[in-house]
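Thread title: Can someone regenerate the structure for this chain?

I was given the following input by a collaborator and told the matching structure tokens would be attached. They weren't. Posting the sequence so someone can regenerate them.
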Amino acid sequence: MALASSLQKVATKLMAKFGGEVTFRQVSSGVYNATTGAITETTTDTAIRGVLEDVNKREVNELVQADDKRLIVAAADLPAAPSTADRVVISTVSHQIIRVQTIEQDNEPITYELILRA
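Best answer:
Regenerated them for you:
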């Protein structure tokens, strides 16, 4: 457990030093409106820092496209584990989360690698 907490602190420091500013938008399903037939959603924004890069061409497959981006964020910076229902806003552009990969130590999340699509 001590190693996991130390790694979480290191990940947070690295993201603060080398990462850029992004907004993690956690999306929760709201109530169903029978009149309009729509489900309202509630969003909670959290400003975090993360490292953004393009996906490698060899990673392109049925799920990942060539113009997708990879964002690595520290797990300790997020209020909850990200899911594909959530979004990330980078420079006023909203990106959908396509895939979430968790890097763990002793079953504790250290970083999240998010594949994003604008």
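The chain is about 15% helix and 55% strand.
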